[in-house]
Amino acid sequence: MIWKLLRQHLSLPQLLGFAVANLAGMLIVLMAYQFYRDVMPVFTQPDNFMRGNYLILAKKTAAPFSDDEIDELRQQPFTTRVAPFESANYKADARMGVNGQQLINSELFFECVPDSFIDLPLSNWTYEDGAHELPIILPRSYLSVYNFGIAQSRKLPKINEGLVGMIDFRINIKGDEFKGKVVGFSNRLNTILVPEAFMTWSNKHYGDGESASTRLIFEVANPADDRIASWIDEQGYELETGDLNAEKTTYFLRLVAVLVMGVGLVISILSFYILMLSIFLLVQKNADKLQNLLLIGYSPARVARPYQWLTICLNAAVLVVALAILWLVRGYWLDVLYTLFPDMREPSVMPAVLLGVGLFLLVSLLNVVAIRRKIVSIWKNKE
User: Fold this and answer.
1) Measuring CA to CA, which residue among 15, 10, 26 is closest to residue 269?
2) If DSSP states are collapsed to H, E and C, what string results for 304-354?
3) In the predicted model, what is the mean pLDDT of residues 43-64?
4) What is the 3-state secondary structure (H, E, C) of 52-72?
5) If we measure between CA atoms, which residue out of 273, 207, 354 comes closest to residue 22?
6) Spatial contact of 53 and 219, defined as CB atoms under 8 Å apart
7) Distance, CA of 325 to CA of 310 (rounded, Å)
8) 188-225 tens-digit pLDDT
9) What are the domain boundaries of the chain?
10) What does the pLDDT read at residue 164?
């Protein structure tokens, strides 16, 4: 009965304006937060074959390292062990296909590091002299190029690390053919990695000279040690930029997410004021009726309840619509991410749901308190 009495002066355009503004604010916050959670694992996923405390060092001039320079790095207090990359000193051609369809035919560049730096079971990373099956590790960028470019354009199946057996990799070295067995992908390498035993044998068997190492891999006790960066700068060296770029991208992504969420929160705050303005105007229009209700014995809490329920229902409706839109839109960017990174694990959407519920409870609580205080002020004025 009280609701029927008080709803006569409701302004639907004002309430609709609040709902749209609140929906925009909440949606921006939730989408920014969920997108950040979905994309972050792409840049922070650990390499399956090289530990996080392995760093790759090169000269800015791309000149080879001398034995003295390698020894100097080995003697640094932050260094655990050091090894040079060994390169193939012969030409190799490769053909890559999937499901019997040839896709790529190009010249390859092989490198190797001591097997102790590779986190793979020895049974998967061995080679016997003269064998024609060769285990290899490919850069993960190859997989992304195939899934996002070739597979989409040619309607071929996408490949993740669990389906590497689908890849037909044929390597030709001076007329001898080898079958490349892809044992995985690495996001820290930009060349094809082969076992140390194969590199030693093939350089002797096919090599046409000696190749000096232009890169070093070294293990450190603490990758965050400030002495590492200082020493590298002093020597004029540089680290492979893969990890550094990932860190920069992660920082930039985090910064953008915070800024976007800040914009969403500002919009939500403005929508809160829009709603409160609408409710206060409605209360002002019904001031005489409210005073009469209070005079005949209704408590301020009882009189305020219809307005409070109105705001709670509006906030709940906005939350439900925002989560529904988030669910739909998220499906589109997940499709792109899965195309680029088939092995990516889908983060849970529950934290975003909890964030939305938290915003709903906060805004609703502020609405309830503000409305109660407004009704109490009318009650005190009538006394």
Assistant:
1) 26
2) HHHHHHHHHHHHHHHHHHHHHHHHHHHHHHHHHHHHHCCCCCCCCCHHHHH
3) 73
4) CCEEEEEECCCCCCCHHHHHH
5) 273
6) yes
7) 23
8) 777 889 999 999 899 988 887 677 788 898 988 887 78
9) 2-45+246-382, 61-83+214-235, 86-212
10) 63
